[in-house]
């Protein structure tokens, strides 16, 4: 319902400083976890590449396997603040170890699960630039942004991020509502429509 989407829009403006059009840039979800499935089904065909962090949320890999995608694991290290090593990804592509040209999605999540590492605007700017350079959709999963975090950040605050990014969010952790299954995603109208085509054939409502 539009009232819920308007409330999400106001929430994003208040806490993240991000303007979202409730009419066509927000899609409510039955928790953000289902969004991972819907996005994967909307964007990935069998054999398409998907970048998955290690360590990372296991659902990124399990859902990628369900849709028959080719998983390219990228390593997060404490020495690099648990951030992606973009130079290493470019080198792996050049060496033929992965194919960025075949990659459709890149999963990331900050504050990170399981390390707890927070994101930064510098990181988000690099992710957006990387996605645009290689035509990869950046999926930022941020259900922990209010946990032990005085300044929650959204990747959508980067200029031009909506062109290439999808951000998932959730009430479960931030509002202690895991059993209610209330989440959302935010992106551009075109991506939202593609994901909605999948979602509308899989469920019929939320709590």
Kindly describe this structure.
Strand 4, helix 5 and strand 5 form a beta-alpha-beta unit. The longest helix has 15 residues, at 2-16. The protein is built from six helices and seven strands; from the N terminus they run αβαβαβαβαβββα. 34% of the residues lie in helices and 18% in strands. It is an alpha/beta fold. It has a seven-stranded mixed beta sheet with strand order 1-7-6-5-4-2-3, with helices on both faces. It is globular and about 50 Å long.
State the end-to-end distance.
12 Å
The radius of gyration over CA amounts to: 16 Å
Mean pLDDT: 96
- How many beta-strand runs? 7
Helix/strand/pairing category: alpha/beta
Strand content: 15-25%
Widest beta sheet: strand line-up: 1-7-6-5-4-2-3
Instruction: State the shape.
Output: globular
Number of helices: 6
* Oligomer state of the chains in this structure: single chain
Helix content, binned percent:
25-40%
Give the low-pLDDT segments: none
The main sheet comes to:
7 strands, mixed
Element-level helix/strand string: HEHEHEHEHEEEH
How is this fold's topology laid out?
Blueprint: H1 2-16, E1 26-29, H2 32-43, E2 49-54, H3 58-66, E3 70-75, H4 86-94, E4 103-108, H5 121-134, E5 137-141, E6 165-170, E7 183-186, H6 189-199
Helix pairs in contact: 2-3, 2-6
List the main descriptive attributes of the protein structure presented here:
18% strand; 7-stranded mixed β-sheet; alpha/beta; 207 residues; 7 strands
């Amino acid at each position: 319902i539009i009232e819920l989407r308007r409330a999400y829009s106001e929430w994003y403006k208040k806490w993240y400083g991000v303007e979202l059009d409730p009419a066509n840039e927000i899609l409510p979800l039955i928790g953000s976890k289902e969004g991972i499935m819907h996005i994967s089904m909307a964007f990935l065909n069998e054999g398409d590449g998907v970048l998955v962090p290690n360590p990372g949320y296991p659902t990124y890999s399990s859902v990628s396997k369900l849709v028959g995608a080719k998983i390219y694991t990228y390593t997060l290290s404490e020495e690099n603040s648990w951030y992606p090593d973009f130079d290493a990804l470019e080198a792996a592509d050049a060496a033929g170890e992965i194919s960025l040209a075949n990659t459709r999605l890149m999963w990331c999540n900050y504050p990170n699960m399981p390390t707890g590492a927070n994101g930064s605007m510098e990181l988000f700017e690099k992710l957006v630039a990387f996605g645009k350079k290689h035509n990869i959709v950046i999926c930022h999963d941020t259900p922990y942004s209010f946990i032990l975090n005085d300044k929650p950040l959204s990747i959508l605050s980067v200029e031009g991020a909506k062109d290439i990014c999808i951000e998932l969010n959730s009430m479960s952790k931030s509002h202690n509502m895991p059993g209610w299954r209330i989440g959302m995603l935010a992106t551009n109208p075109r991506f939202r429509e593609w994901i909605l085509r999948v979602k509308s054939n899989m469920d019929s409502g939320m709590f």
